[in-house]
Prior knowledge:
CATH superfamily of the largest domain: Phosphoglycerate mutase-like
Helix content: 40-55%
Low-confidence stretches: 425-433
Bound molecules: 2-acetamido-2-deoxy-beta-D-glucopyranose
Shape: elongated
Number of strands: 14
Number of domains: 2
Mean pLDDT: 87
Distance between the termini: 43 Å
Order of helices and strands: EHEHHEHEHHEEHEHHEHEHHHEHEEEE
Radius of gyration: 24 Å
Strand content: 15-25%
Largest sheet: 6 strands, mixed
CATH topology of the largest domain: Rossmann fold
Amino acid sequence: MTNYGITPTETPRLCVVMVGLPARGKSLITQKIVRYLSWLSIKARSFNVGSYRRLQEAHPSADFFDVHNAQGERMRRQAAELAVKDMLEWFETSDGVVAILDATNSTKARRSWIKELLQGHGVEPFFVESWCNDKELIWNNIMDVKTTSPDYVGQDPEEAAKDFMARIRKYEEVYETLDETEAESSYVKIINVSSQVVINKIRSYLQSRIVYYVMNLHIKRRCIWLSRHGESEYNLTGKLGGDANLSPRGEMYARKLPELVKEAVGDRPLTVWTSTLRRTQQTARFLPYPKLAWKALDELDAGVCDGMTYEEIEQKYPEDFAARDKDKYEYRYRGGESYRDVVTRLEPIIMELERQENIMIVTHQAVLRCIYAYFMNVPQDRSPWMVVPLHTLIQLEPRPYSTNETRVPANIPAVSTYREKGTSSKHSTEVVE
Ligand SMILES: *[C@@H]1O[C@H](CO)[C@@H](O)[C@H](O)[C@H]1NC(C)=O
Ligand SMILES: *[C@@H]1O[C@H](CO)[C@@H](O)[C@H](O)[C@H]1NC(C)=O
Ligand SMILES: *[C@@H]1O[C@H](CO)[C@@H](O)[C@H](O)[C@H]1NC(C)=O
Ligand SMILES: CC(=O)N[C@H]1CO[C@H](CO)[C@@H](O)[C@@H]1O
């Protein structure tokens, strides 16, 4: 059956417990871990204690977060219990693998409570602390929070920021960071956004993957540009795969691309990544930036169907054709690859993309769909069917709680290479503008 990349000997139930003062990027890290694991087909979900608390107290003032406020303390504890209850239910009913408890968990006593609770239910606790005393980073985070947090909807931004600072001071009074007194716990402590990382008792493969991932995250503003290669000679005849040259219209796109890219990128430094195939390298060849060719960016390998049209595939391998329509993500071409295989080989690319700043990727339809799905959180039953037009520059700007997308068409016509689910295999010679 399917190997999810988890060794079968380990307990496949992990709870990542976030630790850290407010405005240390915990929710951002939480959301990214969920997206990354889901992209790798590892079932993950976050449980935000704050949103359970909000059900009882929608717009609490800073006093609510005072540890000496017994009423507030009781409600916060209740919210955490509700979150954990739902989490355990999710493990049972949805075959969950990784749950992420997004809370403050500011004291050793609380961590010890949650650790026992989880272990009592056969769930391995793993603490991820984001620790930071860089004033500028914290301030930037507060500005993001005050404009996006549901706690402050409809409030004056200045007032919201002040209240939030007061709330943070309440937590600071009691906050205890992870240290050697918790040496028996599995944890990773990220200091000043990965300028220093402390790891302790990493017990499983899954934990080490999460550690490796969070170590690579940064929060600098940057963009990622994606483009398919220009129309190729194979696209004109509807053939798959191969290593064809660009068509005359594809060539026009390659010549226009530097202008489009310059307009979008401005003076920012940029590195261009291509696959090792001719059509992506020809498309990128006029771009005046450093280039890197990755084998991992090569198109989905169509195996024995390489060089055939969809029509020929339907005739020669009708049951394969139908199987691919039924589950395009899992379908693996004879002697070739599935979308899942492509995601697996793209993982180092995603890891490197997280580490880098401005990058442009010129690649192929299936590969581009997989990369796009990671950033835009597109589920697997939809990602293989996504429309990614030829001759269009896609700009993605990752922001704390979403990714901003802009599409810039080059206005150079190309054949449509999109085949809708369940449609006839006839190659479309219709020209889209
Ligand atoms: C974190 O950043 C602040 C501000 O740049 C610096 O003063 C502090 O020494 C850093 N701490 C660590 C442990 O790197
Ligand atoms: C376009 O042509 C290339 C070969 O040059 C092929 O790999 C790719 O799959 C084609 N796109 C579609 C969707 O037909
Ligand atoms: C998204 O990006 C576009 C282009 O850079 C910009 O004009 C727009 O304001 C951005 N939207 C958000 C919500 O940041
Ligand atoms: C401050 C805060 O919200 N801490 C929570 C950490 O997690 C434990 C268990 O989930 C809660 O009891 C605390 O309230």
